[in-house]
Design goal:
Helix content: 25-40%
Order of helices and strands: EHEEHEEHEEEEEEEEHEEEHHHHHHH
Radius of gyration: 23 Å
Number of domains: 3
CATH superfamily of the largest domain: FAD/NAD(P)-binding domain
Structural class: alpha+beta
CATH topology of the largest domain: FAD/NAD(P)-binding domain
Largest sheet: 8 strands, mixed
Number of helices: 11
Shape: globular
Bound molecules: flavin-adenine dinucleotide
Strand content: 15-25%
Number of strands: 16
CATH class of the largest domain: Alpha Beta
């Protein structure tokens, strides 16, 4: 017997569960599959930083009780991702979503060149599922998108060293907490090393994100610990992860297809965050999918096109801007980056320490901030702390960031105008002239 569903979601991480839940609440039949066992999903990341303000706006359950909830840090709920997911699975099932774990996506099924479902494998057997929409929520694996035909209208690239960062999280506890040591929120930008809240108390997460390889990341971490003379700490555990670093595919939809989350590189690279960004996107485009499914017609690329328009002209344009800005770090010598970051952060840091979930998260450089920054930079140039070459790079990248944002804001209304738009976007991204990732 052939299985039929409205929506087949591949991946039961934060992207898959929210999209599946939204569609089920609208009355559509949803099946979510994940290659991992139910109790194993997303164990790659124990601690996650949720933003309760956004979760409340989107109607998503916020962690409040331990052990799922760990602690509050500024406007963030430090939480255990696997436990939150387990709670969501029960909620989803109560809403009629079917979940199938230890079930892997194998290949897409086409009819007349258009997606009509997928072949999956679970319990040692393959089976076909006919679906009106197949969603790639498979994270960094890009399991579905990467198998699309090249001319399907959605980029098929997979992540490679030029498109991702290797992240190692060290869960540590300071052995002599009274000795000076880095504090939560500290960062060494040139190395992408950061200190995040962990289990609380004297615990924290010492993380590093570098291009190329975990070997590279381990070497850099050892170098930092030695160079900055960190006091002794107990290493409780380490997590090895990938962080996408690529402009998203220029189209998130194709005939019978949609991709989001890590599989579509929906990420804010400066905040190392992708969950909120993806959830916001999914909520924004919920009506497009709901209406298309209710119409009873085939979910063609043309019918779903407004998903692209809605995302890329707004949040997508902001994320593209942020990604372009993040390229600074490839061009400026280590010492200068650290100086720029240390000195400019106090001027531009607007992060709130309030518990007020209704506080909006907005950032804009005021005239006063700009004047302060200008004076600082002129001073550094005179004292040769920053080179003219670096300032030129900053200005170049800043100009490109403005251009890419404007270009995304003009995302084509119709698929017919897409090719020209995509060529122009390619040109602007290529102008970053990113160096190859370092080899060690
Ligand atoms: C170190 C680190 C820390 C981070 N911290 C934060 C944070 O604090 N806050 C934040 O917002 N973001 C954070 N992020 C980013 C965040 O983790 C991702 O944006 C988010 O988890 C992506 O969710 P996803 O559902 O798209 O993918 P995933 O969570 O990776 O889920 C994909 C699922 O698909 C399944 N799958 C893969 N292939 C197949 C297949 N062939 N068949 C079936 N199933 C398949 C996988 O088993 C997996 O369960 C962090 C990222 C890293 C690397």
């Amino acid at each position: 017997m052939v299985e039929r569903v409205d929506v087949l979601v591949v991946g039961a991480g934060t992207t898959g569960v929210y999209f599946g839940w939204l569609m089920a609440k609208k009355g559509h039949s949803v099946l979510i599959i994940d290659k991992d066992a139910r109790e194993k999903v997303d164990q790659r990341l124990e601690i996650i930083h949720f933003v309760p303000r956004v979760m409340k706006q989107l109607g998503i359950p916020v962690p409040t009780e331990p052990p799922e909830f760990v602690l509050r840090y500024k406007d963030i709920a430090v939480s255990r991702l696997p436990l939150w997911l387990q709670r969501m699975y029960k909620l989803l099932e109560a809403s009629g979503v079917r979940l199938d774990f230890s079930c892997e996506f194998k290949e897409l099924i086409y009819d007349n060149g258009r997606i009509v479902g997928a072949r999956v494998e679970g319990d040692g057997a393959e089976r076909d599922i006919l679906a009106r929409l197949v969603v790639d929520a498979s994270g960094i694996a890009c399991a579905v998108r990467s198998t699309l035909p090249k001319d399907y209208g959605v980029d098929t690239w997979k992540y490679d060293p030029t498109r991702m960062f290797y992240v190692i999280l060290h869960y540590i506890k300071w052995k002599e907490p009274d000795k000076p040591h880095p504090k939560v929120g500290d960062i060494i930008p040139s190395y992408f090393q950061f200190f995040d809240p962990g289990y609380g108390g004297d615990d924290c997460i010492m993380g590093i994100a570098v291009p190329d390889s975990f070997v590279n990341a381990e070497k850099m971490m050892a170098e930092i610990i030695e160079r900055y003379h960190y006091p002794p700490f107990e290493l409780k555990k380490r997590e090895f992860n990938y962080f996408p670093l690529s402009p998203p595919p220029y189209s998130l939809v194709g005939d019978g297809f949609f991709c989001a989350g890590d599989s579509a590189s929906i990420i804010n690279p400066l905040a190392a965050r992708g969950i909120v960004e993806t959830w916001t996107l999914l909520k924004n485009v919920e009506p497009e999918f709901d209406n298309a499914l209710k119409s009873g017609e085939y979910l063609s690329k043309e019918r779903l096109w407004n998903v692209n328009v809605k995302h890329f002209r707004h949040e997508g344009a902001d994320l593209a801007h942020t990604l372009m800005i993040a390229s600074f770090v490839h061009f400026i010598p280590e010492k200068e980056i650290n100086l720029l970051f240390d000195q400019l952060r106090p001027i531009v840091d607007t992060s709130t320490s309030s518990d007020d979930d209704s506080a909006p998260e907005e950032f804009a450089l005021s005239f006063g901030m700009l004047v302060k920054i200008l004076f600082k930079v002129i001073g550094w140039l005179f004292r040769r702390k920053v080179s003219l070459k670096s300032i030129k790079h900053v200005l170049r990248i800043n100009g490109l960031a403005g251009r890419i944002k404007k270009h995304y804001q003009r995302y084509p209304e119709e698929p017919d105008d897409f090719e020209g738009w995509a060529r122009k976007a390619d040109e602007i991204w290529a102008n970053r002239r990113l160096p190859a990732p370092p080899r060690m």
